[in-house]
């Protein structure tokens, strides 16, 4: 199946901020509770070790839970004193302020909007994107990777969505039911969450559409390889592959590391 770049509602500039935050809160709850990215921890730990970085700049963070849920696992891989800075084009400040201790990382956040394709120079650190790279068309996606290369930063792209309907057809159709069941446990508590989930089911409907489109937009391994063509000529090494997620799901990833700052042996796909 080819890649289709349809729109997702929460990408749109006119989409109400209250609905966007409710949706990203739910996605963050899912990532923190069910941990679909748990098995990328060794890959990310290896990349951080090779760059010598202990600072992560998470781009397109949403409510921030995917990267923060990996804090304890990264600590177990020998990485201590990690600092994570959350950023987004539409910062979800209330949720970020609730990201406190017990995660194995120091959490900071950048209050101003951040363009993933032109990250400010003062935001230095290894860049990560979780469940967000598919939001960008090929030209923008390549520019995100190229910006990291230009500024000498490592970067990791991780997506648990996939253009494989044998894997995602039934889970996608069940998204509204899942939103209704999980909403009482999502934090921060908001009365607006109950209104827009149960009385007027905007969040479940938007989650269904955006989940459906996310799978159609996700880059394959071959497409990621095409996006990084030529970037390895600028002193970078790229590792692209898949690891298992939860159930029969898989995480597709692309990791770029500056060669001159690597330590030890080359990373090998699992």
> What is the count of helical runs?
11
Number of strands: 7
Helix/strand order, N-terminal first: HHEHHEHEEHEHHHHHEE
Percent of residues in helical segments?
Answer: 25-40%
Shape: globular
Question: How many whole angstroms does the radius of gyration measure?
Answer: 18 Å
* CA-CA gap between termini: 24 Å
Question: What is the CATH architecture annotation?
Answer: 3-Layer(aba) Sandwich
Note poorly predicted spans: 261-270
What is the CATH domain class? Alpha Beta
Strand content range: 15-25%
How many domain modules? 1
Report strand order across the widest sheet.
Answer: 3-2-1-4-5-7-6
Query: Which fold name corresponds to the CATH topology?
Result: Rossmann fold
- Please name the fourth-level CATH homologous superfamily: Vaccinia Virus protein VP39
- Summed over residues and divided by their number, the pLDDT gives a mean of 91
- Secondary-structure-derived class: alpha/beta
Outline the structure in words.
The protein is an alpha/beta fold. The protein has a single domain, classed as 3-Layer(aba) Sandwich (Rossmann fold), CATH 3.40.50. Helices cover 39% and strands 16% of the residues. It is built from eleven helices and seven strands. It has helices spanning 17-34, 41-51, 65-68, 71-76, 93-97, 138-150, 165-173, 175-182, 191-199, 202-217, 221-227; strands spanning 55-59, 82-86, 105-109, 126-130, 155-159, 236-244, 250-258. It has a seven-stranded mixed sheet, with helices on both faces. β6 (236-244) and β7 (250-258) form a beta hairpin. α8 crosses α10 (202-217). 44% of the residues are buried. The model is unreliable at 261-270 (pLDDT under 50).
